[in-house]
Design goal:
Oligomer: single chain
Helix content: 10-25%
Structural class: alpha+beta
Distance between the termini: 47 Å
Mean pLDDT: 78
Number of helices: 2
Largest sheet: 4 strands, antiparallel
Shape: globular
Low-confidence stretches: 13-36, 48-53
Number of strands: 11
Radius of gyration: 21 Å
Order of helices and strands: HEEEHEEEEEEEE
Length: 179
Amino acid sequence: MRRSRLTMLVVIAALVVGAAMWWQAAEPASQTARAPVTEALPGPPSPGTPAGVPPGTRLTAVYLTRMGQAVLDETGAVLFRYERDDPHKARSACLGDCAVVWTPVTTSGTPSVTGIDPALVDTIKRPEGAEQVTLAGRPLYKFANARPGEWTGQGTGHVWFVVQPDGRRNLNCLPGPVQ
């Protein structure tokens, strides 16, 4: 009798732990990023925005020692792509609270590029009217609280990735396996 109760308690404990693990895995992906991961930028950050060029309009291809290929804006922010955005539709899927955490890269002119094929860069109109910069059809974002060279958010929810200069997702430095 004592042994069967002990066995039953072990089975119940295993079920509770298994259910908790399943519940955590089944939760929708968080819109917030993990702990900051910073890397020294290759050379000094770009100087301030030149006169007449709105913020968010200069894209620079870089190679970060740990991350590999990435794109920075004029402030040195590492830029991301969102896997829920459809590169064949001219719109962003990151709206509302998402766009507060993941700031859209916007412009009011033609974005300038360094080390990026200008033919891959375009803009789309956001619902609030701003022009969001795209790379290879994918809208660009930066993590709102990131410092220059910081790739906070890489792999978050398996939908946020550092963008490479050709628009592909960078799969380096991920917190876990990505499908």
